[in-house]
Amino acid sequence: MKHLVTFVYAVLAGAAISIGGIANLCSDNKAVGAALFSVGLFAVCTLGLALFTGKVCYLFDNPPAYAASCLLIWAGNLTGTLLMGWALRLTRLQAAIEKAGALSSQKLGDSPLSIFILAIFCNILIYLAVESYRQNPHQLGKYLGLFLGVAVFVFSGMEHCVANMFYFTAANAWGPRAIGYILLMTAGNALGGVLFPLCRKLKEKAEP
Q: N or C: which terminus of the chain carries fewer CB neighbours within 10 A?
């Protein structure tokens, strides 16, 4: 039952990120689109949903079984984005679908090294956003950190595996290269997410 609940919350998180993606696609202004995308992580954090890019940051703060939970969450996120992407293709928002196609072509035309590095950068920001929401004692700082972490990665064109699951689905761009790139983004996001927590642990061990 616990695993089913986790999976359902992961599907809902994938849907929430997809809604942020739709808002981004519907905006003609890059900065506004990046800002609006933050509604996805806002929903995830305030509703307690399960998002892979946030959960993976705490991989080394939990027992080994947590890694399996992260994989389940990834699968749930994929399911949510597939459902939302397919649903979008049935709507009148054709301009958003066309924009998803152009965005997907740009990503799939990039080099693997570039994709991997941009995925690392992305989840460094996601970790800072989620940690700000969790730890900042001030309400303004809590939500400002959440907003800035997301808006900056979207505006900068960094790679978020769950967001790209949605974009690829909306664009009908799935294929061997897209699958490979999603896995590469997933690895980059995981590395970027654990980078700061690992440095913190090393610091704690080094302190007398």
A: C
CATH number, residue 42: 1.20.1080.10
Q: How many domains does the chain have?
A: 1
Please give the Cα distance from 46 to 201 (Å, whole number): 27
3-state secondary structure the chain: CHHHHHHHHHHHHHHHHHHHHHHHHHCCCHHHHHHHHCHHHHHHHHHCCCCHHHHHHHHHHCCCHHHHHHHHHHHHHHHHHHHHHHHHCCCCCHHHHHHHHHHHHHHHCCCHHHHHHHHHHHHHHHHHHHHHHHHCCCHHHHHHHHHHHHHHHHHHCCCCHHHHHHHHHHCCCCCHHHHHHHHHHHHHHHHHHHHHHHHHHHHHHHCC
The pLDDT value given to residue 1: 86
User: Model-level pTM?
Assistant: 0.94
Name 88's Cβ contacts closer than 8 Å, sequence gap at least 6: 18, 22, 96, 97, 100, 170
Task: Convert the pLDDT of each residue in 18-34 to its tens digit.
Answer: 999 999 999 999 999 99
Half-sphere exposure of 78 (CA within 13 A, CB side): 11
